[in-house]
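Key idea: predict the complex, not the pieces.
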Amino acid sequence: EAGVAQSPRYKIIEKRQSVAFWCNPISGHATLYWYQQILGQGPKLLIQFQNNGVVDDSQLPKDRFSAERLKGVDSTLKIQPAKLEDSAVYLCASSLVTSGKETQYFGPGTRLLVL
Amino acid sequence: GENVEQHPSTLSVQEGDSAVIKCTYSDSASNYFPWYKQELGKRPQLIIDIRSNVGEKKDQRIAVTLNKTAKHFSLHITETQPEDSAVYFCAASSNYQLIWGAGTKLIIKP
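Result:
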């Protein structure tokens, strides 16, 4: 079974530039998560989708971050404009359903460095 | 909302000894508590989980205990091995999402 795919794996940009990350979840998984993991900290949920609808985006900085999952499968996360404090690993995860009580399968992450 | 605290932030044990990591949560309605292991530069992976209808669960050298009254749960690793070195995260399920602890870096000394 293929796992969660993410691209790119690494990205270096200058502040005020924009960047986009892509995620392809495990086939059949209805729920998709985007997390931000700053070095030395636990994952922080940015947004959670069930199919193509948003379940929770309360911690997404909406003035600069946006995410979509138009067809209920792949998802993109965008940052525009980026700030230095956005430097982190962006993890995408998926789970079969949305109950909060299932295993979340993580992708390899995208490591973002903002200079 | 839910808040999860995890201790210690760093734990160093001799190979072969046991390691215990503790977490507390605030929302009494939380009823699912997974533990994830993240090796350096890799993705988090589920190693064990427990639901609130049980007090303990064991899988080989790993066990998790839950005290709902005190709102805390713990991860126990026995006979630690070098491959146990990683960051371990606890989490608690609240309102369809997981709230994560800050992580414990486990160091296994040879």
